[in-house]
Amino acid sequence: MNQALLGQRVLLCVGGGIAAYKSLDLVRRLRDAGAQVQVAMTAGAQQFVTPLTFQALSGHPTRTTLWDSHAEASMGHIELARWADRVLIAPATADLLAHLAQGLADDLVTTLCLATTAPITVCPAMNHVMWAHPATQANVQLLRQRGVQVIGPEDGPLAEGESGPGRLTEPTAIVAALSRTAEQAAPALAQTLAGERVVVSAGPTYEDLDPVRYLGNRSSGKMGFAIAAAAARRGAEVLLVAGPVSLPTPVGVSRIDVRSAVQMRQAVLGALPADIYIGAAAVADYTPRTQMANKIKKSSERLDLDLVRTPDILAEVAASEQALKLVVGFAAETENVAEYARGKLLAKRLDMIVANRVGIPDGGFESDRNAMTAYWKDGERDFSSAPKTELADRLVDLIVERLNA
């Protein structure tokens, strides 16, 4: 499978045409290719498809206006424009193409296109007469001269019952074209982990109290999944052991889904021997001594839970007789981050530990961004706040560096 879009951040701008419904499938196809997708819509687009539908498919809130006081408290449109690795406009109506050609910025979508430095791709869709009009053709030619990629339109039946050039290119073909462009633009990624077997654990564990309730944590699995993807891109054979999360499996990665700490231990130890283990999962420290067969009823003002320690997977892997070349742990802390991380590094006899502070805005669990510090016996490296996909690439590069130290 082509991995050119793996980890790419695509800002999909949806114009106000009937073909907007196809952009729903486009979101899914982009995510299947490993891209992260955020959606911005024009007012016209919202007449055809609801923002909520795009939110459900992309996993991110859909942006619709410059006048969102919450999002714009931190200049959200500028942040979104900077977030994107590529801006994709589909469908691009005749009106939207004209606005882009003239450099107008009278709504969110056109403002984003002026505020970004990312490459822009437009996928025109309109009536065939509108497409053939000299004004539209002049606008498209001007955009091409500025480096804008144009995909389509295709020749075929149109919504109004006529036929001709103006049909939106199918989502699968759009993704294929974007993949080819990304592959040509990106330098070949060095296969620095070729021949290495890497096991990554990610996400939370859920410890069931009864058939209804469980003990868990707020880990989203995003960091671990990004690390697995980054290792696969560098040629590693990657097995991802995932707790209960709703994330697509990265391209080129094998996956085992688990729920509890005991199940995660069984899957991780069963995956050995391996060359590298990266324990990015937030494994529960305690689990109920007994799981109730029936729902615990609300019968008193107080409920006491009898909890016991869960297995220490990270320490077991580090002490395994099936020696690994590198064992990397994670530490999510709310205070004294460096002290606790170095203590865990020594106590568990790890080769490296990656620590970050949680419980803060724009970082830690659930966020798409993070900041962290990696520690090893005689060194450390800070990673400033960045998208988790970017941090994963930088961390895997450090792991390769330490592997060869």
Automatic annotation (TrEMBL):
Residues 1-197 are annotated as: Phosphopantothenoylcysteine decarboxylase. GO terms for cellular component: phosphopantothenoylcysteine decarboxylase complex. Keywords: Decarboxylase, Flavoprotein, FMN, Ligase, Lyase, Magnesium, Metal-binding, Multifunctional enzyme. Pathway: Cofactor biosynthesis; coenzyme A biosynthesis; CoA from (R)-pantothenate: step 2/5; Cofactor biosynthesis; coenzyme A biosynthesis; CoA from (R)-pantothenate: step 3/5. The keyword Protease does not apply. InterPro entries: CoaB-like_sf (IPR035929), CoaBC (IPR005252), DNA/pantothenate-metab_flavo_C (IPR007085), Flavin_trans-like (IPR036551), Flavoprotein (IPR003382). CTP binds at D285, K295, P311, D312, I313, L314, F330, K344, K348. PANTHER family: HOMO-OLIGOMERIC FLAVIN CONTAINING CYS DECARBOXYLASE FAMILY, PHOSPHOPANTOTHENOYLCYSTEINE DECARBOXYLASE. In the C-terminal section; belongs to the PPC synthetase family. In the N-terminal section; belongs to the HFCD (homo-oligomeric flavin containing Cys decarboxylase) superfamily. This is Coenzyme A biosynthesis bifunctional protein CoaBC. It comes from Pseudoxanthomonas composti.
